[in-house]
Amino acid sequence: MNSLLLLIISIAVLVIGYITYGGWLAKQWGVDPSKETPSHTQQDGVDYVPAKAPVLMGHHFASIAGAGPINGPIQAAIFGWLPVLLWILIGGIFFGAVQDFSSIFASIRHKGKSIGHVIEQNVGAKAKKLFLIFAYLTLLLVVAAFASIVVGTFNGFTPEGDIVPANGSTATISVLFIIIAIIFGALVYRKNAPLSVATVVGIIAIIACIAIGLNFPIYLSATTWLILILIYIFVASVTPVWILLQPRDYLNSFLLYGMMIAAVVGIVGSHPAIELPAFTGFQGINGNSSLFPMLFITVACGAISGFHSLVGSGTTSKQLNSEKDAKIIGFGGMLIECALAVISLIAVGILFADGAMPNGTPTQVFATGIASMIAAIGLESAYNVAYAIIILAVSAFCLTSLDTATRLARYMFQEFFIPEGTDPKTLTGFKKVCANPYFATLVTVIIGGIMAAGGYAKIWPLFGSANQLLAALALLAAAAWLGNIGKNNKMFIFPMIFMLIATLSALVITLIKNVVAFSAGTATLSTEGLQILFIVLLIALAIDLAIEGCRVIFGKKKTA
């Protein structure tokens, strides 16, 4: 299969899906640009801050992307390029984009509140508590996993004590990038600098940061970086969004756009053949996996991700300037991520050789594939620079997802202890302490940090299933709300049921494997034991919540 032909077909399908299905959904749900959004009606200068569509798209896209659309398709490629591609396109348009769009829209129609609040209003108070616990557990997995990944990217030393120049440069550039973002935010939001001028200056500053980082790397140990990163995400979670979150993610998005443009140039210029077979079998190349349900779990953010619903209803909805922006940011943002997933699939596909997948981590495979295509068009000298910048971009998005997840976990923790309709300022005692943003953030950072110290490998196997199960619950919440207000919600039924079945199946498979490992005496409490605990909690919470929601959706129970 020619890589250029595959890319053209994919982009055409995604564009058609956005115009037709995205436009149809907006009409069905009643998107109304004349309605004021919560960023205006509840503007507080901290969380509720109106943002121009390009700026908000940058935040939203940078937050939802992370390493997911790169890691997922590359790992799922063991089943062949065709099933992965079909799931990216079909899942992205009819599952993921529907979830992302509806999560943002449902939230802005509920005063910018979270999906948990939407569930409380349309399913019940018990369901809200169940969802908040489930979402918080999932976010702890996100914080722990991405903190560990970022530490690994910044760690300046090998286990033997040798320095790692690439990691040192990445660390320097990332630190400088944060400083540039703060300056950018001050210029745009406090000095009213034109966005276009500030953007040009910001991009030039990013290039300068890269040049400085490549020449002046910072070498610190993994332990030191973990402490610094935990301090950073604590501060980032409680500061006003205009200071760091909005400007950093907006500028960050240019790294990703640039990376995608470079990939497209490489594909168009070299258009290499995809050596990976179209289909390798239901058990994959290694013979020890299963296409169902693992394909639909592994691709993750490349097709659908529950984390997106938390971003959309947690931060994006509080900054949406107009309801008309919900489609381009929610539906469109997901489809751009699908395009990145297709590029990732092409990268691994062209490196497949001698019946084996390429060596290295998914990020390394992605960087190698893209850099190789760029070199193939006569830019051999640009290989090392392209490789380094791609690694930097992926690392930057992991850091973005990390502090966004921390802020969202803080929202969830606070919301659990604040009764509906109650002003947090009137709370007393234990609830007042737990509703405090600084306390809620501190608890999240400490637990996430402890889990991260053990290495992401111990909790990463659960992230995919928990994340996709969260997507099913977000679809359930939107379906319940639209049904209660008399709008068409049939587009949610099949995606919701399918994701419930797929994710619960994956969790049960993992649970059985861990129990068998304990029986054989090859398991440990810190790894398999921790996984079993999380799996049991996630399954119990999800089933209970699904039952409550289905009673509303299918008419056996009605909310007020």
From TrEMBL:
Pfam family, one: CstA
Topological category with respect to the lipid bilayer: Multi-pass membrane protein
Domain CstA N-terminal: 2-351, 359-506
Keyword flag Cell membrane: yes
Origin superkingdom: Bacteria
Transmembrane segments: 84-108, 129-151, 171-189, 196-219, 225-245, 254-274, 294-316, 328-353, 382-402, 438-457, 469-485, 492-512, 532-554
Keywords carried by this UniProt record: Cell membrane, Membrane, Transmembrane, Transmembrane helix
Gene Ontology CC: one annotated term: plasma membrane
Keyword Hydrolase: no
Subcellular location(s) per record: Cell membrane
GO biological process: cellular response to starvation
Family named by the database record: Belongs to the peptide transporter carbon starvation (CstA) (TC 2.A.114) family.
Protein name per its UniProtKB record: Carbon starvation protein
Native species: Anaerotignum propionicum DSM 1682
